[in-house]
Amino acid sequence: MSDAPAKHQPLVFSGMQPTNTLHLGNYLGALKNWVKLQDQMPCIYCVVDMHAITAVAYAKPDDLRTAVREVAAAYIAAGVDPKRSILFQQSAVPAHAELAWIFNCVARLGWMDRMTQFKEKTGKHKERASVGLYTYPTLMAADILVYKATHVPVGEDQKQHLELTRDVAQKFNNDYGAEDFFPLPEAVVLGTATRVMSLRDGSKKMSKSDDSDMSRINLTDDADMVAQKIRKARTDPNPLPDDEKGLEGRPEAENLINIFAALAGTPRSDVIARFAGQQFSGFKNELADLAVAEIAPIAEKMRRLLADPAELDRILADGAEQAAALAAPILRETKRLVGFHA
Ligand code: AQP
User: Fold this and answer.
1) Tell me: the pLDDT tens digits for 141-173?
2) Are 220 and 71 in contact (CB under 8 A)?
3) Could you tell me the CATH number of the domain that includes residue 29?
4) Whose CA is nearest to atom 10 of ligand 1?
């Protein structure tokens, strides 16, 4: 991680969508790093419910409220400390939406058309996607820049969106003659499993919205379920490879080795050396033990937190108050630069 530009105080911002229960990909790709970053600089962690409705219309408002609490509980259970970091729900701070509108007018259509996640999520049915899903990256830029955050811990899959955030910041600063007004935030990609793939298809990322629950390990899965999902994870008929080269064209094997390395905190080359030429069954048993050891305490803590929804709501409300107070002067100055009522 390089130093943030001197003009801006180091500050972390990141968020996850309450679209479903968080999974091992969210945890290894992002959440685990969020926890570590708390020791390095101030952090703001958000449950991005405004992003969530770009893809799903919740049948009942309570379904979304429950999902928001569940994500907040996962953050805390994994080690986000609401006494040190600001933890809140995106829709509680309207400054995000206000700044997103301004950024919709800064970002260019050509930039948005290049976003691979939109293409992946919509496939052949682009015309049926919501406009909100298309403009998701400008809202993400607003989430980050409304606090002038300088560092954004995300998985590999979100790096392109962060590039767009930098482009938006740069163009706003140029267009409105305000050099360095917004920082150009950096992606913080730590660890070995920055892109965890589906357990059913090694070419697709592990995702909350995958129809198959067997494709992912949820942070709420119990030990039996975790072990079962790993045992049933798709592999090919060959034994584990002897070297890195032997992983070429074997996405499922590569994914399981990456997950093993991330959970064990060892380099991937060590994992390959240790299991070289062995069958997957023994490897999978050890992988299941590692996954259970990491996930089970989180699942247990989540259950305890979710038993007291009023306390979770209090934590989120307290965080929203702090976030709104930080965003207000930045939004006011942005509107003044644009010429809006401020
Ligand atoms: N498979 C993954 N491997 C590594 N990191 C991942 N992240 C998501 N999936 C993986 C990281 O988790 C953070 C939260 O992501 P999000 O909730 O904003 O949505 P997403 O990236 O679209 O994640 P999902 O699980 O695929 O959700 P759905 O299915 O709802 O779209 C991000 O930092 C992301 O990089």
Assistant:
1) 999 999 999 999 987 788 999 999 999 999 999
2) no
3) 3.40.50.620
4) 25
